[in-house]
Amino acid sequence: MSRILLIGGHGKVALLLEPILAERGDTVTAVIRNRDHEDDVASTGATPLVADVQSFDTDQLANLVSGNDAVVWAAGAGGGDPERTWAVDRDAAIRSIDAAVAAGVKRYVMVSYFGAGMDHGVPEDDSFYAYAEAKAEADQHLRESGLDWTIVAPSALTLDEPTGAIAVGGSGKESVSRADVAAVIAAVLAEPSTVGRMIEFTSGQTPIAEAVAAS
């Protein structure tokens, strides 16, 4: 059993992840911005915690993560506004990584996307550029942090039913259900061999626990 702080606790993937963790005995604290979402989170078995990570400095975030065994970053600005994308997907994410270092919380799982990286190739005039660049910088900061990190990088997300199976690698042109992404995050948290790895995946035929351990 672990104490897990899930940042972005009302996202579609997060709401699917929380009951998986709670049912296996983990203690999950889900950070949300909107107090109106507390009941949604509580119904999953997680404990909602209202906090605006965009406005928190590193010391405040260190207090937030302190006492947990792992941090999962599943927050995001949701696209649209480049300034908010930079503020959440890059700046707040980087502060949360620094906060985990300061608080001595070694395990950190970042939810990113298939193809993320400093060589993402998205042109500056593309509406996706701010997100691609923000994720690239946050992911790189995590790699250099000294934490026990894993970057979970799914292909295009769907609302399909879970299959319990994925394919690691590939072209990234395929899709994967959010429910299977949630299951991958849960599996990663329980599998020490995923430390120090970026796992890019799509839907596939390999059971998730097996795929995550072997990739």
Summarize model confidence as the mean pLDDT: 94
Q: Main sheet? A: 9 strands, mixed
Taken in chain order, the helices and strands follow as EHEHEHEHEHEEEEHEEH
- Strand content is 15-25%
**Helical stretch count?**
7
The gyration radius over C-alpha positions equals 16 Å
Strand order within the widest sheet? 3-2-1-4-5-6-10-8-11
- Counting DSSP E segments of at least 2 residues, the number of strands comes to 11
Terminal CA distance reads 24 Å
In the predicted model, the low-confidence regions spanning at least 5 consecutive residues are none
Envelope shape? globular
What does this structure look like?
This protein is an alpha/beta fold and 215 residues long. The chain has seven helices and eleven strands. The strands form two sheets. A nine-stranded mixed sheet has the order 3-2-1-4-5-6-10-8-11, with helices on both faces. Strands 7-9 form a two-stranded parallel ribbon. Helix 1 packs across helix 6 and helix 4 packs parallel to helix 5. The longest helix is centred in the middle third of the chain and has 22 residues. The protein is globular. The protein starts with a strand and ends with a helix. The mean pLDDT is 94.
Features:
alpha/beta
Question: How is this structure best summarized?
Answer:
With 215 residues, the protein is α/β, with parallel strands linked by helices. It is built from seven helices and eleven strands.
